[in-house]
Amino acid sequence: MSSTGGTRYLTPTLSFLSDVSVAGESIPLAQPDVGPREEELVLEVLRSGILSLGPMGPRFERAFADWVGTKHAAAVSSGTAGLHLGLVRAGVGPGDEVITSPFSFISSANCALHAGADVTFADIDPVTFNIDPAALEAAITPRTKAIVPVHIFGLPCDIEAITAIAARHGLAIIEDGAEALGAVRQGRRVGTHGSPTIFAFYPNKQMTTGEGGIITTDDDAVYEDILSLRNQGRADSGAWLEHDRLGWNYRMDDLSAAVGLGQVERLDSLLAARTAAAERYNALLADAEGVQLPAVVPGDTRSWFVYTVLLDAGVDRNAVIGRLAERGIASKPYLPAIHLQPLYRARGHREGEFPICEGVSARALALPFFGKITVDQQERIVRELLAVLAVPPLLASARA
Ligand SMILES: Cc1ncc(COP(=O)(O)O)c(C=O)c1O
């Protein structure tokens, strides 16, 4: 597992792909779906000799923006880079506070630190696992400058309530849609609700570019600034060596963009395959004892990033993970609460601060999930999970 030996320093997302290798029959947590079209486009870039700042980047960005339904999309080197630039563009800096959810991947909080600001967390809704707007508003102080709402596990957050709060208090919003490409909130796709939104393309995501991310916006000025900030702060004139602000090298190379273009062309079917897999899990687990299935919010559409169940309180989750691993099935506690990570404990955070997040985080278990997962694999996973849960003392301790 990721806490021992050679994998100790792997990031959680990386170990998502590398966990568990029982010869011949292991089922990983995640797997990208790339095919001949992506190969063809990557070859096109290689043969062109233009590996960065060529035409493939804009082709990918245009296709992505058209698919999501925004005027612009600016590709960057990772979702984390996108969040960082979004906050920098919003003017967030030292002395400011940024509010986000403690139930997310660590980047949702770290981006504030990258910008030199402080992070404030607000607890989550127990059903959707997204930030609770009332808790968010209660966490606002005179130093609050921005909100990073996360659409966790691909389920849209209450962006209308959050937008109203931001307007009342004069705060910027940078939406973290890393896990929510294709999700629909009350008839509108995530990314089209008016604030810059980032998506991420690590290979466990709904679509991949290898590493990579993108920022969508309808705002010409935001778009122009992001183009400069990702490209070493180059001046609007485009002059190659004229830098008029502090920027970064957060560019996406053309090989990654080629993979991304191929993925966008196939995005509808990539998403449909994940939806079908999630629905199969829902059916297979419908009567399972000790397992709570992902929430459904009427009127909203989840984009399936992970398939995460909640085990009954008291079930020994680590034992479940260990026994599944013995059977060649990867699973993971997902997500760990950000405020309880060593980095944030060292900044003063403790257990008990965000009880809903901590309760969900202690019980959440991600099962293998990807578009190409087979019916046989899913049936085997569910069979093994139920067998593992039925063995005393795992469920017995939950009932005690
Ligand atoms: C909610 C969330 N935010 C941000 C990120 C960061 O994206 P990246 O890994 O591309 O930096 C991720 C990806 O793991 C994520 O799940």
Description:
The protein is an alpha/beta fold. It has two domains: 230 residues, Aspartate Aminotransferase, domain 2, CATH 3.40.640; 132 residues, Alpha-Beta Complex (Aspartate Aminotransferase, domain 1). 38% of the residues lie in helices and 12% in strands. The strands form four sheets. A four-stranded mixed beta sheet has the order 1-10-9-6, with helices on both faces. The chain starts with 11 loop residues before the first helix and ends with a helix. The site of pyridoxal-5'-phosphate (PLP) has 15 residues, from helix 4 and helix 5. The site of pyridoxal-5'-phosphate has 15 residues, from helix 4 and helix 5.
Quote the CATH topology of the largest domain. Aspartate Aminotransferase, domain 2
**Order of strands across the widest beta sheet?**
1-10-9-6
Strand residue content: 5-15%
- Supply the number of helical segments: 15
How many domains, as an integer?
A: 2
> Cα distance, first to last residue?
29 Å
In the CATH hierarchy, what is the superfamily of the largest domain? Type I PLP-dependent aspartate aminotransferase-like (Major domain)
Mean residue pLDDT: 92
Shape: globular
Name the bound molecules: pyridoxal-5'-phosphate
Q: Round the Cα radius of gyration to an integer and report it.
A: 21 Å
Structural class: alpha/beta
Helix content: 25-40%
Question: Which consecutive residue ranges, at least 5 long each, have pLDDT under 50?
Answer: 1-24
Q: Which CATH class of the largest domain applies here?
A: Alpha Beta
Gross CATH architecture of the largest domain: 3-Layer(aba) Sandwich
Q: What's the number of extended β-strand segments?
A: 14
Reported for the largest beta sheet, the result is: 4 strands, mixed
Question: Order of SSEs, N→C?
Answer: HHHEHEHEHEHEEEEEEHHHEEHEHHEHH
